Amino acid sequence: MKESKTMTCAELLIHLLRDTYGVRSLFGIPGVHTVELYRGLEGSDVQHITPRHEQGAGFMADGYARASGQPGVCLIITGPGMTNIATAMGQALADSIPMLVISSVNRRDTLGLGQGRLHELPSQQQIISGVARFSHTLLDASTLPEVLARAFAVFNGARPGPVHIEIPIDLFNAPVSAPVSWQAPTLYRAAPDPEGLAEAARLLRAAKQPLVLLGGGCVSAPEAARALVEQLDAPTVTTINAKGLLGRDHPMDLGANAALPAVRELAAKADVILAIGTELGETDYDVVFDDGFHLNGTLIRIDLDPEQLVRNQRTTLGLVGDAGRSLELCWCIFGAAEASRRRANRRRSERTGSSKRSGV
């Protein structure tokens, strides 16, 4: 039987965030409803950053996640705290940014009764669920490890985004017996089908005017992105969320403004387009909103979310998989094929030279 000890729900939350999920920074504004939650921070080395407004906490967490690649975590009070952070959650949802919002909510025995409790909303979870990939009300402190595991699973799923867990204020001090060391499951993102990748490589090798479009899904694999672009010798558009991925002085980087006439002309003339980790939305490719960005060639799309493969542009070959892993595999497959082609050419050259020397 695993060793366990008793702690409060609030203490267990901080313990799990720090020791199981590696959280080292939190964003939020303490309030009367979250005082007990903050007691869980006492004695820990988790940094707490206090903004002037909950919307600021949300955008701080968003920026932290973009810069670090780790989920940004917020501690938010009931009611106005949650409505304040909703805008930042909406932005994170649109850009698939991992954000964990942990809030208080009124006591379990008062939920939904409309008694005019402090900060009470008719249904806080219902209000916020529209800007969250997953929203859950904790009703039993013993289920906290499982609920947190579900939240972090979202960050490794088809599309990351904000997750909301609300904890009734009467649960913060509830005693809970939990394993001293809770082992989070190891999750791996899927890679595209090898046959599909091989077909993509075939199309790209045959391209006369290839074009690469890299979105925010690619930021975890900058080296593979650069290597693939250089193998293809293809001009590349990076979206705002992928800006700087290739390096500011990379000769293949066309920048992050696909609305420029020269870029539009290049896109329209490209015979094969590889789009990875981008939704091909107007905010990245048509910021002048005149429907002037067109892809007329063969379009290869790779995305974690299969629904993205049929949005905004007509896809020729769609591959479901993590953008970062896909970049690495594409580069390996394309590089191996190129190496094989070079070896074959070298052997043909050697045979030709040998024949010439022998007079055959």
TrEMBL record:
GO terms for biological process: isoleucine biosynthetic process; L-valine biosynthetic process. InterPro entries: DHS-like_NAD/FAD-binding_dom, THDP-binding, Thiamin_PyroP_enz_cen_dom, Thiamin_PyroP_enz_TPP-bd_dom, TPP_enz. GO terms for cellular component: acetolactate synthase complex. Residues 197-328 form the Thiamine pyrophosphate enzyme central domain. Pfam families: TPP_enzyme_M, TPP_enzyme_N. GO terms for molecular function: acetolactate synthase activity; flavin adenine dinucleotide binding; magnesium ion binding; thiamine pyrophosphate binding. Residues 7-126 form the Thiamine pyrophosphate enzyme N-terminal TPP-binding domain. It comes from the Bacteria. Belongs to the TPP enzyme family. This is Thiamine pyrophosphate enzyme N-terminal TPP-binding domain-containing protein. It comes from Vreelandella sulfidaeris.
